[in-house]
From TrEMBL:
Name of the protein in its database record: beta-glucosidase
Enzyme class, broadest EC rank: hydrolase
InterPro entries membership: Cellulose_Degrad_GH3, Fn3-like, GH, Glyco_hydro_3_AS, Glyco_hydro_3_C, Glyco_hydro_3_C_sf, Glyco_hydro_3_N, Glyco_hydro_3_N_sf
Organism, as annotated: Bacteroides pyogenes F0041
Domain of life: Bacteria
Pfam family, one: Glyco_hydro_3_C
EC number in record: 3.2.1.21
GO molecular function: beta-glucosidase activity
UniProt keyword annotations, A-Z: Glycosidase, Hydrolase, Signal
Signal peptide start and end residues: 1-19
Length: 750
């Protein structure tokens, strides 16, 4: 039986998570520290260095077993056979000198066997509780195979959809990344790390990885300290305060210093400021990749720089185990530094309960259970974003007797799972085509003609079949998007349009005159303005996972009502990137109407367009703003009231307003709270998300809703690099997305 966390209070998301005070130390911490010190005192230098070595499982059991006996492996990657896991644990506990268990690790990013929507899709739910539940399910399934450490959540702020790893992120907003990251940590780690179904989480990638130049993976970043502190650090600080068991450094260099060798972020910030006592691991071979960066001359120097910077364990590249003994002898690395690293590793293993019971009970019937599949379906439903619904074509009515299902993503069981799901099984995937036939095939006729075989397919030979199917149908549902291989690590793009002949397929289907519903399944926001214009309705899903098919089927027919919101801004064209809602204000912000390139008169005056900050071919704004998403029903906001017009920095502002469901369907509205600081010692964003709530209303129902905003949550790192709330004028908005809503002003005084 899985225990889910207690329901979140309505205003949980409002809290600035990273500002919370850590919980008091538990009584067991002192005992754990005593055990760590006692074991550390018995270890030779070689055994200490062995704990700092993480190896990838190669399949050579004899070699791995021998190294475990010698105490030369601290952690083992990518072993998923529970019987072999038990065998290796037995070797460690019975045949090694110090009987230190090996930590088994694996990438479990958005599900283990039961695959949930990719993290970007989970962010679209604006529901931390369901994210926590998904991570709990992933932990239960993964731990049943002996996995006790995973490399998630990824809380890299991602404002560039060209970057393939935006799929793994929670989007562009610091608060969203903090809240969702903390929820995923709670889910993975459970109530106690020593629970056999708990797995250690890993906050990654520390730090700035999502700001890679040109959206190219592994590329350099230049993020000044103030921007790090105001935007990129907060999700990681939230993870540290949430007792995330481990941190992973990022591949990138920032301002010329690779994160793997950056003592400012690993010592000054993580250890000294945030008082973090967890373990820090490199990313895959990122220690020795500092040689390719031109930051280290050889593997030995890379080991010295990484360990001295604050890294505790090296993932796979082996420079620590081959070089650290000599580096200690040469006094280039101190034994104190080694001991501190090993303390962090041993502490984690004790907290996980591995010394008491590292073994796995086999077999365990916990994968693909009914509860797991139902929760994956619910998450997929909540992740769906309705971008357009002209003439209320959705939900499909009983008058629809025949639908044409077309497009390469209608029956793509592998690609529907999305990126980074090594253990997902496509034969368990329920696709939209199969779900429509199974759930609604007794009521409607389903004609399936894909038109294209996969998302990059340029062969239009089967278009005529898809068009013929459309002409027979009452409505056409086109499933387009990206194969899973087109997003994720090392899968960056310079062009964000639909691949292959998918756009041409949408045009051909639209020309039949039949109502066209376009369902997009992708790993990132795509530039789909043309396709949106040609479609009657557009439903966007970031790769929805195992149960995406039944979720989509029920959404199309109104058994479920869309509630998802965009967790990242959708650009009109790639040249707008980076485009995000919380940009700083400029001295030449657009005002009035935009004049686009095709409307500029010949020989127009050089200043006739107004000399403001915009693209002449894209205009002022994005295709869809952050926080955008429609419903089958309608919501009305009214009667916004603030508890005070003037407050000091110790006060809490109470925000009240009315929300009514004015439509015909029961629906969930994601209410969002934004704030603007009008004048600061440094320029401030036009808006910042400070809270959100999921509110369910019946038709005709209305509720009085409340946000509480502690004024201390308006603090930022100022010109003197101090975190303060500066007195002055503020505006807040409550509304349905980052561009619409009711507003009110207030003042913060000394």
């Amino acid at each position: 039986m899985i225990k889910f966390g207690k329901p979140l209070s309505m205003c949980l998301c409002l809290l600035a998570v990273w500002a919370c005070v850590p919980k008091a130390a538990k009584e067991g911490d002192k005992e754990t520290e005593n055990r760590v010190e006692a074991l550390l005192a018995k270890m030779t230098l070689q055994e200490k260095i062995g704990q700092m070595n993480q190896m990838n499982y190669s399949g050579n059991v004899e070699e791995i077993a021998g190294l475990i006996k010698e105490g030369k492996i601290g952690s083992l990657l990518n072993l998923t056979d529970p019987e072999l896991v038990n065998k290796l644990h037995e070797i460690a506990l019975k045949e090694s000198r110090l009987k230190i268990p090996v930590l088994i690790s694996r990438d479990v990013i958005h599900g283990y066997k039961t695959i949930f929507p990719i993290p970007l899709g989970q962010a679209a739910t604006f529901n931390p509780e369901i994210v926590e539940q998904g991570a709990r399910i992933a932990a239960v399934e993964a731990s049943s195979d002996g996995i006790r450490w995973t490399f998630a959540p990824m809380v890299d702020l991602s404002r560039d959809p060209r970057w393939g790893r935006i799929a793994e992120s929670f989007g562009e907003d610091p608060l969203m990344n903090a809240v969702m990251g903390e929820a995923m940590i709670r889910g993975f780690q459970g109530e106690k790390l020593s629970d056999p179904s708990a797995i250690a989480a890993c906050a990654k990638h520390f730090v700035g990885y999502g700001a890679a130049e040109a959206g190219k993976d592994y590329n350099s970043t230049f993020i000044p300290e103030r921007l790090l502190r105001n935007v990129y650090f907060p999700p990681f600080e939230a993870a540290a305060k949430a007792k995330c068991a481990t941190f992973m450094v990022s591949f990138n260099d920032n301002d010329g210093v690779p994160s793997t060798g950056n003592s400012f972020i690993l010592k000054d910030i993580l250890r000294d400021e945030w008082k973090y006592d967890g373990m820090v691991v490199t990313d895959w071979a990122s220690a020795t990749e500092m040689i390719a960066h031109g930051f280290c001359k050889d593997r030995k120097q890379a080991a010295a720089i990484a360990v001295n910077a604050g890294v505790n364990m090296e993932m796979v590249s082996g420079a620590f185990i081959e070089s650290l003994e000599a580096l200690v002898d040469e006094k280039k690395v101190s034994i104190t530094t080694i001991d501190d690293a090993v303390r962090n590793i041993l502490r984690l293993k004790f907290r996980l309960g591995l010394f008491e019971n590292p073994y796995v009970a086999t077999p365990q019937a916990v994968k693909y259970t009914e509860v797991h599949l139902e929760k994956a379906k619910e998450t997929a439903e909540q992740s769906a974003i309705l971008l357009k619904n002209a003439d209320n074509v959705l939900p499909l009515s009983e008058k629809v007797r025949t639908i044409a299902v077309v497009g390469p993503m209608a029956d793509a069981p592998h690609d529907q799972l999305g990126t980074w799901c090594f253990d997902g099984e496509k034969n368990q995937t329920q696709t939209p085509l199969n779900a429509l036939r199974k759930l609604y095939g007794d009521k409607i006729r389903v004609i399936y003609e894909p038109g294209l075989m996969y998302s990059r397919d340029n062969n239009k030979a089967a278009f005529h079949k898809a068009i013929a199917a459309a002409r027979q149908a009452d409505v056409v549902v086109a499933f387009v998007g990206e194969e899973s291989i087109l997003s994720g690590e090392a899968h960056s793009l310079a062009d964000l349009s639909l691949r292959g002949a998918q756009s041409d397929l949408i045009t051909a289907l639209a020309q039949t005159g039949k109502p066209l519903v376009t369902v997009v399944m992708a790993g990132r926001p795509l530039t789909i303005g043309k396709e949106v214009d040609e479609s009657a309705a557009v439903l966007y899903m970031f790769h929805p996972g195992t149960m995406g098919g039944p979720a989509i089927a029920d959404l199309l027919f109104g058994k479920a009502v869309p509630s998802g919101k965009t967790p990242v801004t959708f650009p009109k064209m790639v040249g707008q990137v980076p485009v995000y809602y919380a940009h700083n204000r400029t001295g030449r912000a657009p005002t009035g109407e935009e004049t686009l390139i095709d409307n500029i008169p010949l020989e127009a005056g050089q200043t006739s367009l107004g000399c403001t900050s915009f693209h002449m071919d894209a205009g002022f704004g994005p295709l869809f703003p952050f926080g955008y998403g429609l419903s089958y029903t309608a919501f009305a906001y009214s009667n916004l009231k603030l508890s005070a017009a003037k407050l000091n920095t110790r006060d809490t502002l109470t925000v009240r307003f009315e929300l009514a469901n004015t439509g015909k369907y029961t629906g969930v509205e994601i209410v969002q709270l934004y704030v603007r600081d009008h004048v600061g010692s440094v320029t401030r964003p036009v808006k910042e998300l400070k809270g959100f709530q999921r509110v369910s209303l019946e038709p005709g129902e209305h509720k009085t809703l409340i946000f509480t905003l502690p004024i201390e949550n308006l603090a930022f790192w100022n010109r003197d690099m101090k975190k303060v709330v500066e007195p002055g004028d503020f505006t807040l908005w409550v509304g349905t997305n980052s561009e619409e809503g009711l507003s009110a002003d207030f003042e913060v005084i000394e």
